[in-house]
Amino acid sequence: MRVLLTGPTGTAGSATLQVLLADPGVTSVTALSRRPLAERHEKLQVVLHEDFTDPAPVSAVLAATDAVLWCLGVGQNDVPEAEYVRITYDTTLAFARALLAANPQATFIFLSGQGADPSERSRALFGRIKGRTERDLDALGLARLHHARPGYIHPTTEKPTRKALERFSMFIEPVFRVLFPRHMIDADDLGRALLAAARGATDAPVLDNVALQRLAAGLP
Description:
The protein is an alpha/beta fold and about 220 residues long. The protein has helices spanning about 10-20, 60-65, 80-100, 125-140, 165-180, 185-200, 210-215; strands at about 1-5, 30-35, 45-50, 65-70, 105-110, 145-150, 150-155, 185, 205-210. The protein has a 7-stranded parallel β-sheet, sandwiched between helices. It has a two-stranded parallel ribbon with strand order 7-8. α1 links the parallel β1 and β2. α3 (about 80-100) packs parallel to α4. It is globular, with a radius of gyration of 16 Å. The model has no long low-confidence stretch (mean pLDDT about 90).
């Protein structure tokens, strides 16, 4: 399987990258990134790409992939609203349309999130824009499309620096794991679940946190 991954430096993306590289059934991994990666592997190709609203420069890559794992994202409080919409919605739809044109049989997996609301009635910007993205992806007519909606993603790969919220989240993780096990997932388990979905382990269009946990464990 040939996989294209976005967001390879984020919490979900970096763990997913390690899962892909370790899996013998994945023959090649193309990581689209704005900056170089420290990771080196014989089946990894890093493609530097600055403007993710313009997929044209990587159309050949899209044509040669079996699955796109879209892990590109940013926190709603980390950027202005217009930038959040551009990163979350505009880039995702642009690449999904390009994939449909270049490789209509490929699988597209969108890393959404718990609380995504396609009706856009959510009070949270995150819920509205993730939901809008899901809804408009559904309308494209992609051959195979999944929306992954994890809850809290617990980091499982090292990062040189972590934001204060990430450090706090890691501090309360043991408590969260005991009290809310159905609403959190380890980042590497999320990567395993995304890969399982890309392989056709489920037909469910929406994968909530429990469904992702089951996929990671090899359960239907």
